[in-house]
């Protein structure tokens, strides 16, 4: 019996770990399409908000899928999957064109300036996923190359981002994909400031997510909050920042003035100490003078006493002379 209990103790940690392990069907794998949602810690709220926005626009632009209701996760129109990074969500989709759906969302927000999201920061389409190996990336990018860069001359840039991964070298990926775009159409040129198309390469753990995004910078890097900002909102934000900067500057000035006053007070205190010291010196010197005056007075008294004694001696001497003279007369 004791042997069975010890076996149970050894088995429990691994047993419960397996029970809580997320099934593979809910994890990222090659061959998927969907959406990236970035957020700031509020992942549950972000997922709920993403479902609402995606369903709203999917029902509007893909009505044929509206009636499709299924309980199987891999057949749902939108299904959250484990991405392998915090604040980085991947939502798998059965929508035929995730780029078209996100483009419709961005166009609407850009034109109306209506704030659609509180928790989602960026909403990006993913057209294909693959393993994070350079040959897999090359093979996965080939259909996108045919779709976007063959017929018309385009300016492009390559956006490379990586999370929780040591796979793939940034410079190598950019070099390979840029060469593929240039060889597909000799007129295609790189433009890092305002490209017509941005090739997005997102690497998370051992997976790579690819998409080609139009108007990347015009749509504020597909940031829903920034895209909804009007010029008045931006001005208000700038005024707030300017006011806060002014308050900080005023506080700094007050602190400086306080330092100056404190320094001046220290100087006055020091000067007062110096005056006090000088007064003490004067007082000491006065005491010395007073003492010297006392000594002089004493010496004068002594001299005066000696003079009195001398006078008395002179008087006695005079009396003695008179007595002598009297004695002389008497003898005569």
UniProtKB/TrEMBL annotation:
It comes from the Eukaryota. GO terms for molecular function: RNA binding. InterPro entries: THUMP_dom, THUMPD1-like. SMART domains: THUMP (SM00981). One of its GO terms (biological process) is tRNA modification. Residues 108-214 form the THUMP domain. PANTHER family: THUMP DOMAIN CONTAINING PROTEIN 1-RELATED, THUMP DOMAIN-CONTAINING PROTEIN 1. This is THUMP domain-containing protein. It comes from Timema genevievae (Walking stick).
């Amino acid at each position: 019996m004791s042997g069975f209990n010890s076996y149970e103790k050894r088995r429990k940690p691994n047993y419960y770990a397996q029970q809580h392990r997320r099934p593979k069907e809910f994890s990222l794998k090659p061959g998927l399409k969907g959406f990236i949602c970035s957020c700031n810690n509020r992942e549950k709220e972000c997922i709920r908000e993403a479902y609402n926005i995606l369903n709203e626009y999917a029902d509007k632009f893909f009505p044929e899928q509206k009636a499709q209701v299924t309980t199987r996760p891999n057949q749902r129109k939108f299904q959250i999957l484990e991405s392998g990074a915090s604040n980085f969500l991947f939502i798998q989709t059965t929508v035929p064109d995730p780029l078209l759906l996100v483009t419709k969302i961005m166009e609407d927000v850009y034109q109306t300036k209506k704030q659609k999201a509180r928790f989602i920061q960026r909403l990006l389409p993913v057209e294909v996923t693959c393993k994070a190996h350079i040959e897999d990336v090359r093979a996965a990018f080939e259909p996108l190359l045919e779709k976007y860069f063959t017929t018309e001359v385009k300016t492009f840039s390559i956006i490379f981002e990586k999370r929780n991964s040591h796979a793939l070298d940034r410079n190598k990926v950019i070099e390979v994909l840029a060469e593929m775009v240039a060889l597909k159409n000799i007129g295609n040129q790189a433009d890092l400031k305002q490209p017509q198309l941005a090739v997005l390469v997102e690497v998370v753990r051992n997976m790579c997510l690819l998409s080609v995004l139009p108007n990347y910078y015009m749509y504020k890097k597909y940031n829903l909050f920034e895209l909804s900002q009007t010029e008045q909102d931006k001005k208000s934000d700038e005024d707030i920042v300017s006011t806060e900067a002014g308050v900080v500057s005023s506080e700094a000035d007050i602190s400086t003035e306080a330092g100056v006053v404190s320094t001046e007070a220290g100087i006055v205190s020091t000067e007062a100490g110096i005056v006090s010291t000088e007064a003490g010196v004067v007082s000491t010197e006065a005491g010395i003078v007073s003492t010297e005056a006392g000594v002089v007075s004493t010496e004068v008294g002594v001299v005066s006493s000696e003079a009195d004694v001398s006078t008395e001696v002179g008087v006695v001497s005079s009396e003695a002379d008179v007595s002598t003279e009297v004695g002389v007369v008497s003898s005569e």
